[in-house]
Amino acid sequence: MPNKLIILLILLTAASCRKPDVELVIYEANSHTHLPLHDVCFVNDSVGFACGGDKWTKGIFLRTTDGGFTWSQPDSIFNAACYTMHFFDGAHGIVAGNNSLFATTADSGKTFTVRVSDYRPINSISFQSPLVGVIAGGEIDAYNNGYLAYTTDGGNSLTRYPTPGNMTAIAHSDALTVYASGFGAIYKSTDGGKTFQPLNARGDFFLALSAPSPNTAYFAGYQRLILKTTDAGYTFRKIMSGNAPFSPREHFRCISFADEYHGAVAGDNGIMYLTRNGGDTWERVKKFTSHHIRAIHLFAPDRGVVVTDGGEIFLFRN
Known about the structure:
This protein is mainly beta. About 5% of the residues lie in helices and about 45% in strands. It has one domain (about 25-315): Methylamine Dehydrogenase, Chain H (7 Propeller), CATH 2.130.10.10.
């Protein structure tokens, strides 16, 4: 009993010392759907896209031309969820998702050309051009049978790099530097994605990453751990600790940095944090949704957009 009282006092003291949550200016846009949204991206301050859908039955795609204040009615792309996108401009882009479905468009998503590479989900893509890009995949619920892939023909053929765990995030920081993360591992390529090397980073299922420069990258784990490198992956520093025993659990699913210092991380049940100093300190945001936040895009250090698994789209300003 005394030990339990001590633990309770510690928790109450910590809660009383915590700074008040930051309240953002929020605008909820009408997405015209309640299906999960998994990704959001913008090619400029006006033109953007969102995608999602039901895992096994329907993939959906939305577009905006006014900075996210209004969105098109959801279009159905293929018969499985869309997980990830990369757009080069307002017309040309790639959308991919479950069952390795891979679709390209040249008319802002009005029409798509769809193909399938294999059965495993495509969780994340990053392209340097419509032909040259990298892919991260694997079954999210299985934690294994993952892969990284490189293509020079727009996804028609892939050079695969098998990984022990499922891979969920991949991003270029420049033409040659690519970071990838997933179940218990972080990888790096210095040749544009032709080959990958595992980095000395462990401790979580790193669902998401953001690489604002070749030397600086951030990796967010599902169990709340956030790692940062400032020397191109040679060393890593913990900038947020993972979930601790007897503390409320927080789970991260997405992270985005507008530059090397200003960023946001978010996840389950609407949890969200902001940093203005490269992760040295974090401010918790007052919740504006109870759904899981699946993706963040930052327009600038003080404003951005998130999408949730309840089909919600929120614009926010700090």
